[in-house]
Amino acid sequence: MYQKRVPLAYKIIIPFALLNIVVASIAGPIARNWIAGKIEQAANQHMRDGALAVQDFFWEKEREVRLRSQAMADRKEVSAALAAGDPHRLLRELLPIKASFSVDSFAVADRNGRVLEGNGGLLNNQATISEWSLFKQGVVEMNSANLVETKRGLQLVGINPVRSAQGVIGVVLVGIDVNPILKEIKEDLHYDLALFLDGKLAASTLTNEQVRAINVDRAVGRVADADKDEITTTDDPGNPQRMILVPLKLHGEVIGSFVLLSSDIEVNAAKRDVVTNTILLNTLVVIVMGLIGYVISKRLSNPLEKVADAARAIASGNLSERVAVQSADEIGDLAEIFNKMADSLEQRAEELTHRINELSVLHDVSAAFGRTSNLEQLMDALIAPALELSKAEACYIGLANDGGIGLLPETWRALNHVDSEERAAVLRDLAVADLEKSSAPVMHDDPNLGHVACIPLRLGDSTNGIMAVSRKNPGFSRGEIRLLSTLGGEAAVAVEKVRLFNGLRESSVNTVKALANAVEAKDPYTRGHSEQVARYSMLLAGELGLSELQKQSLETAAYLHDIGKIGVSDDILVKPGTLSKEEQSAIQQHTLVGANILSAAPFPWPITPVVRHHHERYDGKGYPAGLSKGEIPLTSRILAIADAFDAMISDRPYRRARSVDEALAELQRCAGTQFDPYLIGLFVRAVKGKKEAVAGTPSASVDLRKRWVRSTVVKIGELLIEGYGELAGPRVTGSLEARLNEFMVNAGIDVLVAGGRLEIGFDDNLDFRQEIEVFREVLRTEVDLISSVTGRQVAEKLYRTAYDSLTDAERRVLDFYPLVPQFKQPTDRFGKQ
Amino acid sequence: MRLLRLITVSVVMAITIIGLAGCAKTKTEVSPAGKVTKLRISGSGTAYPLIKILADDYHRRNPEVEFFFLPSVHSKGGIEGAANGTLDIGMVSRELTQKEKELGLTYTLLSDDGLAVATHPDTRITSLSKDVLKRIYSGEVSNWKEVGGPDGAIIVLDRNEDESAKMILRKYILGSPEFFKTTDRAVILYYEKDMITSLKDTPSSIGYLSLGSAVSQKLGLNLVAVDGVAPSVQNIMDAKYPIIRPLGIVTKEKVSDAARSFIDFATAKEGRELMLRNGFAPAK
């Protein structure tokens, strides 16, 4: 399931913040409403309290004004002045205390209500107040007060009777301006005040505009029950006012009402402030919480990130990365464990790497062993890894030879080439000693070399060699010894393999040579011919650029191509002259016979087909299969050319040799018919290029003929002496030999007869003709000498007996040249008598 | 631990910010930077208006000095209070007596305050001669029509004898008590503010008061010229209007630094300009 990656920090912060926001969204308005309600309540309560305060204030003022009037009325001087009817006296008395009493006006009236004197505009002099209810109260000895509209304006007027001995003689009235009172209240309570008497606005602290704006009259009209107070707000949105209407009581009577007004602007502002502040607070809290949450989560996620980074580094291969977190909590634990795990991984990786290196070296060594078929190469391939693997300072390796004595071949190497010979010598001595003694690794301590380990190269139960390594420090560990033993084991196997292989190849080669020799033993003319054919085949192969394998196969085939001739009778093989059809067919069989013989032999190269088809013709008229052109194996085609060429330039019993140029011309004439024209072209070019070498060839085939003749001569010569010896006895034979030798010496012929053996010192400076002459001379002399003793007939008989002992080929040689003309017999076409 | 500290710091910061934000709307009072020095002043009620003006201005400039005006105890009380240490500064509106001079006080004259004569506006009097004044106050003239005014009995407003204003009036107009007796019909008022309200409220009245008070409080009284010289600061400074009383302060000789500084201010250019603006002729 695909999950979008959300960092840990956000997983902590976002729920936190959301929670905050939800709580704030729910709690915020609730709190705000609650606070606003509280503010409203407080404002209302304040207003009510204010109303009470206003009431109290009024009563205080009312009391004050009563007391003042009383104080004034009680003064003796006032009473006296009133009784005397002296207004000025009254003024003198009362004016000074008017100001100190903080009253705004006063008046003194007599019993009848006629004002005698006054000050401050309360009443005019001579005015009558007899109808005043206040006066009526005052004159009957009541100290009272009431609101009165005077000349000055609305005043709170107190009244007190003036007494004399006769009783009440008049009243004193004292007035306080109401407007200043309202102002005072406003300053104190911060409320605007409006006083209503008889439903009409009597006094207020408001300006006319405000009055109009508020429409207080209408508001007042709404309050039906004067006993109850009700807080209302005005309609003007631009200037909302809160107001309370309270009755004004005086002496328990409601004499009017007053309205307290307060601009709600501040209340509203306060409410707005609450909203603003709570929102601000909420936002701040959310931000702060967010920050704190972020910090906390970073403290959690940073270490985790560090662990993740370290894990990434390790995954990408850097195993030495560790986490540097040390907090004492679960994350710290995680980091610690992680580090431990990384340590373990690193260690294992190192071990593995080490092992892999070892195995890699071993593998390379094995591969190198597999490639070498040469003991020296093997040793070289062994010493370098041995040094590297064992981290040794010097290494010596010696292979046990078949005799078991000493160590050959051997090799050594030292890290520091100084004293490498000496070191090698020390190691060798130790190794040789241990070779005898044990079949397991042996440790030594040498004062110069330090620690030495001798490890035998073991294969099965036998030890093929020994490896000695040395190192100053530290000593070789068991693991290293084990490794070197493994290496030694591999080396032992490889050594064995090389030896076997070498042996096998040698025997293979020898087998081939033996077979070739068998063929050549049969037919002296063929001897050396196979070698030459091989040479010419290799020449052409070189021009063609054939592979090693093809060359080897060609070479072996060349050696063995005429092996089939073993199955052909000698008479036919060396018969001079033309052959009958049957004889020809018999010869042609030799390819098949050769192939059959060879098919049984397990050559590593494909010889059989080469031999079978080496007499095919390019035009398909050859034998045995009549293959043509590309059907004929390439090697057979090559062989055919080489074979024909050598035959042409060699002497045969039935014809003389041709020259090289003649042979080449003949080859070219037959190109396209008998031979592959392309190969002919190459061959001709090659031969012409190597004319010198080829020129030596005739002498090689001459050599062949010479050899045949020489061996025949030796054989017949020896047989003759042997026959003579049987007849005449040893003493007589000895004298014969002596006389022969004497003759040879005198004739300057390098021939020695001794003990029935004929030793001819062949002189290669003589050409073939000359040599034939010499041999004739030698044999004639021999026969003559024998004849001189035995007579001619016995001599001839001896000759015949010796002749019969020769092989067909040797007889043919004798008869062909002839070598012993005096006894030559007429022969028929087949050379038979 | 580091985390805990971080959280604590953040929370404290938050609270501070909120607190500051909340406080932003409320009126902040300017609280004095350093230690507050209080100077207790009392004495002549006559001198009070001037000293109050000076003190208010000084406080405005030096909020760390606050003036406490104790209830009026007349010049005498001011002198005595300064001498016995209950007052830092005593206000006086007359010259010191010989005995008072021996109390070891330093007297600083601040202003030559004019004594203005005023009548109720309904008298329609603008000027009076000294002689007329004398006869009004002796009771010889008892109706305004006798001196060119409307018909109405003159209400003579007077101050008590030991009041500096009365003494000044006697000194310059009426004469000493041995030689001049104020009419019985005069209304004796004990405080200048009484005089002021009485002058306002009592028709046909005549009285006298501090020029400075009249001007600085913008009383709107009907001040009359005496011998043709109108009561004005300029006329006082030109020595044309002779009825003056000295307004000054007394302090102990070893005066506090705040008091010294205030006195220096009052007598320096700013103080004098202030007085001038308010109708008090600065002392020469």
Q: What is the assigned CATH homologous superfamily of the largest domain in chain B?
A: Periplasmic binding protein-like II
**CATH homologous superfamily assignment of the largest domain in chain A:** PAS domain
Strand proportion of chain A: 5-15%
Radius of gyration of chain A: 77 Å
What strand order characterises the main sheet of chain A?
A: 2-1-5-4-3
Number of domains of chain B: 2
Give the overall pLDDT of chain A as a whole number: 80
Structural class of chain A: alpha+beta
**How far apart, in Å, are the first and last alpha carbons of chain B?**
74 Å
- Which structural category fits the helices and strands of chain B? alpha/beta
Largest sheet of chain B: 11 strands, mixed
User: What do we call the CATH topology of the largest domain in chain A?
Assistant: Beta-Lactamase
| CATH T-level fold name of the largest domain in chain B | D-Maltodextrin-Binding Protein, domain 2
Euclidean distance between termini CA atoms of chain A: 110 Å
* Gyration radius of chain B, in Å: 25 Å
What's the main sheet of chain A like? 5 strands, antiparallel
Which CATH architecture of the largest domain in chain A would you pick? 2-Layer Sandwich
Q: How would you describe the shape of chain B?
A: elongated
How many helices of chain A? The count is 25
